[in-house]
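## retry 2 of 3
previous attempt timed out at serialization; input unchanged, resubmitting
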Amino acid sequence: MSAIMETMGKLTTSEAANRLGVSRRRINALINAGQLPARKNAITRSWEIDPDELAAFMANWERQVGRPRERDY
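## retry succeeded, writing output
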């Protein structure tokens, strides 16, 4: 599946985790907290992350210990 997403220009949570140096679980937590933009693939139901959005996130991200804060509504 990873090769298919790379040809479409999207990253999997595993690929994003490798680029950030964190776990896949941490990526999912960042997505669920609304801190990392991602979209669900309608067919595979897996998260897809745009490499440009990940780069923008990385530029502003200060790595912290613990769970990401929840969104403020």
